[in-house]
Amino acid sequence: MNFNSILIGSENAPRLSAYYTKLFGKPQFDQEGYIGWQIGSGGITVGPHDQVHGKNSQPGRLIWNIESSDVKVDFARFKAAGAIVVREPYSFEGAPGTWIATFADPDDNYFQLTSPIDVEAMGGGQ
């Protein structure tokens, strides 16, 4: 299997589309209110959803990640483009050299920039 994409539903999809366009550039597709960007081998799509109303009341419940070879540089670029910063780049003891930065979108959905993670070194990948 291969993870393909994530769809972010919104009551105000045009506002989210404008926000993500500032960060990711011109969308690769725009069809019937659904706007999408290819990021590496996966994609992100923003669109209307009749079951979504207002802001996310639990933004930490689902956090999607974008792998970055230089989190600090990409963090600065996103911040300069108007990204909503939740947490500036940080590292943690269990994974030296790994960086994470957390952002929110206007609906309070969280996403992060993360350093590449070596699953094998963390004891995974079996």
Overview of the structural elements:
- This protein is of the alpha/beta class.
- Helices cover 17% and strands 35% of the residues.
- The protein has a four-stranded mixed sheet with strand order 1-4-3-2. Strands 5-8-7-6 form a four-stranded mixed sheet, covered by helices on one side.
- Strand 3 and strand 4 form a beta hairpin.
What's the SSE blueprint?
Elements: E1 5-10, H1 13-24, E2 29-31, E3 34-39, E4 42-48, E5 63-67, H2 71-80, E6 84-90, E7 100-104, E8 110-114
Parallel strand pairs: 1-4, 5-8
Antiparallel strand pairs: 2-3, 3-4, 6-7, 7-8
Concise summary:
This protein has two helices and eight strands, in the order E-H-E-E-E-E-H-E-E-E.
What is the string of helix and strand elements?
EHEEEEHEEE
Q: Write out the strand line-up for the largest beta sheet, numbering strands in chain order.
A: 1-4-3-2
- Report on the biggest sheet: 4 strands, mixed
Helical content stands at 10-25%
Structural class based on helices, strands and sheet pairing? alpha/beta
CA(first)-CA(last) distance: 15 Å
The number of helical elements comes to 2
| Beta-strand percentage range | 25-35%
- Give the number of DSSP strands: 8
Radius of gyration: 15 Å
